[in-house]
Fold each of these.
Amino acid sequence: MVVLDLRERSLARGENPAHTKQLALEIPRTAKHLIMDLPIGSKEGSYDLALLNEAGDEVSRATGTATLKDQIVILRADIDIGDLSPGFYFLGVRQPGLEWSRYPARVI
């Protein structure tokens, strides 16, 4: 299980995350379950999440449900990234039908 705090990492949809100064999220290849504190203003409900390569192609995908707890919207999802090579990716998070919000991520 890996806990990721995205609350201070709000990006405009479509903004190029390669040009931000954010530190990459670290996600171990052994991770099977992600718990993400979503940015302020996020809604409860179903979400898609994916690891995207630098070209923006999906290399791993999962779905999860976000719920409100203690004024934080928390997204929980099962994901299997054991086959991915360590390196730099983007963590994409979106509600179905919307654009990806991308966060720099490093698979370790």
Amino acid sequence: MIRLRPAPSSLRLFFLVVGVFLTTAHAQWTPRNPVTAAQKQADGVLFTQKTGFLKLQVCADSIVHLVYAPTAAFEKHANFVIAKTSWDTPQWTMEESPEEVTVTTARLKVGVARIDGSITYRELDGKPLVQDANRWLTPVKVNGEDTFRAEAFVNIYGSHEGLYGLGQHQSGVWNYRGESVDISQDNTNIAVPLLVSSKGYGIYWNNESRSRFNNRFANYLYISSEVADAVDYYFFYGPEIDTIVADYRELTGQAPMLGKWAYGFWQCKNRYKSQDEVVAIARKYRELHIPADNIVQDWFWWNRKGEFVFNKNYPDPKAMVDDLHGANFHLMISIWPFFEPGSANYDYMEKQGWFVDKFKFAKPPFHTDGMAVYDATNPEARKFYWDEVNKALFSIGLDAWWMDTTEPETEGQEENILLGHKLAVGSGDRYVNDFPLLDTGAVYQGQRTASDKKRVFILSRSAFAGSQRNSVTAWSGDINSDWFSFRRQIPAGLNFALSGIPYWTTDIGGFVFGSPSDPAFRELFVRWFEWGTFNPILRVHGTRGNPDGNELWSYGPDAQKILVDFDRLRYRLLPYTYSLAWMTTSESYTPMRPLVMDFRTDARAVDIGDQFMYGPAFLVNPVTEPGATSRHVYLPQAKWYDFWSGKVISGPTVEEAAAPLDRLPLYIRAGSIVPMGPEVEWSTQKPADPIEVRIYPGADGNFTLYEDENDGYNYEKGVHATIPLHWDDARRTLTISERKGEFPGMLESRTFRVVFAGESHGTGISAEAKPDKVVTYTGKQVTVMR
């Protein structure tokens, strides 16, 4: 954990003087673009400037849409991201003075200076949040298209302000204050142009071309895009980050529920090579009684890429799927957007003109002449792609889709392969970041059309804004199997969480390379798995040395015990996790939560990118140093319970937490209500009954237990049930409220084993042998006194 000491007063004065000088100098250097007219419209204000036109659209009390363009027509090309284009404009006012035009909503003030068109976003009390100081459109020709380069120059006011989001990047940086981030899709780097500030605002930069957020001089933020019709962005005001994320999802689409099985354990490696091997691995999990729900078939199960035909090692794919389903396993399979010559699909798609123009993929690691990527901007090509997947795979019962190389493929060259090419929708440079959104959208929309009985699950190597609406879980790409890479995944995943897409995972243990017979790698794998237990999706994967496997028993009996214990914990927490999933869908919640989400005004939490909350209760503290037996943990303002011992610690404080190899430092916030289910070997083995309800006294608390049919989309029609739970700390009373809703198969009567956690009571993974209260619940309100 990095600690920054306050600067001496003389040094602070020096920086203040320098800052004033630079701000004044910037005002002198920047050509002024004064406002010459302001016209109030039904949904906002149209400003005429000396050069160009500016529109401020009031979308909601907390959302303002800015567009700056050469003409008042505000002409636009296709936009694949924005899901909500019609807004019920809220009440707002416009006030004019000689200096400024001010737009005020119930939560936000936006002032436009007449002298230069600068825009200051303020809280209602007038306190400035951030200033859009200037914006430019420079005519350019890109990929044969006459277009503009869009640029905006933003003044950052907060000296301790943290900047986050922007997708997933591998620099190991948590707080992007003082950094520059490219918004461009690459293997291991995911581009999402949503910037979130600890000061309580967010900016969604509405552009699909390559862009950059440059804050290398920490007081100024410079945002640019290579291809644009206008400077176009949405401003969100929270101030809480959950509100900003909710606004982003209202704009770009909500995240659907995944099947309950998806929140269990995923077994994968590079790669299973036959039908017999896949089935045998699943059966061994059941024989060893190790909890698992999912197994994965990685690449090269085909004869030719793009023809979706199993090779001779899979003689009866339908029987394989049926065998796995009989063992209560779900099967995910790798599919790519590439097509290899020699297949009927290739010939047909080439004839239709559905490949990226003039592009034949022949880069490492394939070295295959003529390999082509399909044009995902073409709706007919997307439909054909899904139809082939449906006919060959979904129709025989495949459950989930591993959509690999969705950048698309970037290895072997510096730039994205869509650049410089013509797509069905237009220039590849204009739409370069859209491919993962459109590619995954083809499968999501196709499966939703084909069936409402099985929820879509897509694991994608890349994502773009809006991908959450396609049931996408992104993973962090083909990373190395070492401690350096492991450490970098934590801030990468936390920034991704603040980019509005809730589901994310990594290759536990790294993709290349690691051997389970190596004691050093075993330690790394165990630590990675412990952390992965509290990722939104728990999945192992990687290239392991032969004859090593990547199954939990492959790492020796000592490691196996630790791995299985954390796997058990994941399954005991399924009632908690599945309820978080419902919050994610119904309330735009974020399950993997950087500390800044819950402790936004805590100056120390702003800079901590290696600890996080898993839901409202768990403070998770990964161990990322080899040989470590403890780690520094910052506990923010609250009372905290050590999950393993029940010891109570009051924050804010720094704790040297014990961290032997079999223990991940975990703390539970006082006021938490944590429902824990019975031991199971797969997610739906039996109803979640009895449920152990652990109460952590010291503050009031609420939690809503959610249940449904575990799969299918009836929940969207209201077929589900919720049970609100409330802990009143002053009265020492737990209220289990009346159940709301119902669904087929719902338990009419169930048992809650209530445990008031404390030292050596209600601790660790296993169920408490002596609960404080045992309650029979039939759907009517019950009150439990401590």
Amino acid sequence: MNPFRRVDRLAQLAHGVDPIDAIARLKSALAAIPNVSKEAGPDVEIIDFTPMGPVLAVRPYCHTNHYWQVYFDTNKAIVQTFGAAGYPVPEQHFRVKQA
């Protein structure tokens, strides 16, 4: 059994947010979370595109004993990082065409 696990989270960005900037900010924030593995740095990559904007895969690694602590701290890091950067809240927009 492997003593290390990968935490898998998703982070939705709004259109207009630079995903490269968001990736850099999140990698820095994740590295500061207690018990995130220093050997295997966190992975943050664009995984999908939705009508609201790009979606990031946010994947820090940790010892199995610290999985849930890192999971919840990762959620907090996403919220705090995006808030501090002033990123807008993702919204889905529809255009209605009148006949």
Amino acid sequence: MKKLTKTLSLVLVVAMVLSLCVIGAAATFTDNSKVTTDYSEAVGIMTDLAVVKGYPDGSFKPAGTLTRAEACVLMANMTLGTASAAALAPTTVSFKDVPASFWGYKYVEYCYQCGYIAGTGNGNFTPGATLTGYQWALMLMRILGYDMTSLTTGNWQINTAKVYYAADTQFSKVAISGAAVTRETASQMAYDALFASTNKTTGYPVYLRTYNAAGSAYTDTLIKTYSSLTDAAAATTALNNGAGYTANATAGANVKYYYYGTETTSSGTGTLAYTVFGVTKNETAADAYGRPATAYTVAAYTAKKNATVAASYGWNALTASKTVAGAPVATYTTAVSASELYKTLGYAAIIDAAGSKVTTTAPTPGYLKADMTVDATNNITVSAKAVTLGGAGVVTEIYATSTANHYMVVQIRPTLAKVASVSNVAATATAGAYTKYSIAGMDCRVYSTVVDKTQDITNVTFSGTVAKGDFVMIYGNPTAGYTVNAVKTVSGAVTGYASATNSWTIGGTAYPQTTAAIFSSAANGTIAATATSATYALDTYGNVVGSIDLGVTNYVFVLAVDSASYLNTTTNKITTTAVATAIMTDGTLNTIKVYTGTTVNVGDIDTTTANNQTVGLYTYKINPTTGQYVLTYVSNQLKPTANTGKIVKGDPTLISNTLYANSETKYYVATFNSATTTYTGVTTFVGYANVTSMNVPTNAAAIDVNGDGIAEVVFLDTTAAVGATANYVYVTGSYSSDGVTNTYDVIVNGTSDKMALTNAGGTVLTPGLYTISAGVGTPVTVTADQAVVLATGAGVDGKYGATLKYFTYNNGLLSGCATVDGTYSVACGVAASTPVYTFANGACTTSTAEALSGTTGSVIVMAVNSTGTAVQAIYVVA
């Protein structure tokens, strides 16, 4: 396949594409940009393994030359590992110009004793001379164990090239010559040798395996490669029977020779990379974004030998691996036209749906078509010129596949989100200190200290300064890590839209609208030509994303609906309309006129749907002519679990693993007067640390404007519409009898009294709340929904929560707890004037709810309306 040049739609794409490589190659040198793209992966991996090192000033100098002494360092590192190579201590001096005082003496001596190098004549090695491509190839073939005796016949350079190119197909990546080899070229050739399979039919290697003292790990060193399996087996037997060696040693300082005769090349274990460093690679892998990649993994036995090996390489310590994405043949950040695809990829090109992927915060198979829908089934034939890809703000990368003229597409879409919180977490004995950023529900961490390399891992890269409350573009996932870019903003009135360029005129300037960014709340962040002056976010490429004036001003929480008549001053006629009692987003209680169409229909105040919903969360627009609110029910409102759910003081959880509160969340709780059957106000709590614990009522909603998982406002209607008031009488349990009629001590109308009552069953009445049927003295037990008994041991009543004994009143809310020092939970909303009847020592005293302050009794009964939603009286029996 022909090699294509990367095409960029915008220069700005470079910054973003580079930042996508969360796990990349050659990311440590100051002159990284000077490393040839084709060699960057090899330079990165060889640097990770410390086979190749940079200079003290932080540079790599890729175009610099490699000396003969430096080549010996590389070969020693490749065959022994860096630690063992550094520990070499030879006792012989083989070259006059490489004395024991020479900085690279031990490396040169080791390579000479192994047969990897030869001198330059007259007993010299000439360590400072530059190395040619032929010389470096010859040395690499020797360390791989290839038989190079044929070099003595004919031209040694030609013979070396023949063996080099035939040894492994990957060696053909570098064209060797008699010119000085550069540092980046030498790194690529060393990388090729490190991962070249030694299990070829042209060579069967014999290794020396050395065990540690515990026998739990070993190191393999290549001795020689033989041309036949028979020769390798015979040599192994002879070596293992030699003096000083134990054939089957597994512990101590004993060693064993062995040969590879059955392993397959696909396993990746017949390489120096594996035998020395324990590293295998998979060239058909994909990175966390779905891009074709090479995956490097540290083998289990090496990790066992050195548990921190992956971390010491700078790799993912959790998986002991590193994934390096390949280079795309083309990259775009705007829509890719069919003609552009045709021009760049050629007439016969096909975009394969299989293998292509769209990545937001979670990968999605397929590719994005022109209309931004995902196609996971149909291939694109470029010559048809019928389909375009991607869109403004989408990073669209095209990769070649192993099949000629077939390509796959990887596209990355960021999300616009608000930084919900930034907190610093101190170090502990088991974990390092870090700064935690909560963004769109993602846990992004930047570690300042490391205690445990397997868990103290920074997983986010920032572009620009980011603080709490800021809006950002975020993309990535837990595997790849996250990239967060601070957004630019533009303010002004939206005065027009151009369909040809898909751009909005904001403050007099046209900005293309992104087709990439997902606003993390689908109901917000939009752009409208009728908008007044507002602030809008721009993505990395200057595309407008959406409004970030995310105040919650266009919501109302409806508590009740009725109809009302008023004088229309425009028509001078009486107009009847629906009115709603609602909590506004500033926490005030308001009565608003609701537009319901041509007729009043209080059963359906939402004219956009037919859901007959009269209470709950709505968005609104105001009709400028009538001043009426045009309401739209928020059917997908974030709603804390009704009845069974709880809001607990000090607990930020609203909906488990979905929605949370923070120190700025406002809780608005409606207060209700059961006597007048009207809503009287709103109690406000700010922050989850300050809210009173309460059960979540049926009518409840939360607003998460920017979709960051943090609610700005929580609405709670603890009291619904009130039913008819019952004629209650509380029977205390004491009575006298004349043998015919039982006269009971009762509480009625706020006073203690005696009343002759007849039980329909003829038995004695038990203590409790009753109504009197038509005044004839026959009591009817109040249903469970109308009389909630709260007493020690009474259990859960199913309506207002667990057993409550101690009551207190707090600004419209009746709260209680089971123990005097317990956490109070809201039972319901009551009016301050709700009557409280306390019966003690045969007498009844009357007070109101606002006087309750830790009031206790052996039995507490709440008389509620027929629907069990409003408290009409409270009975306390001491």
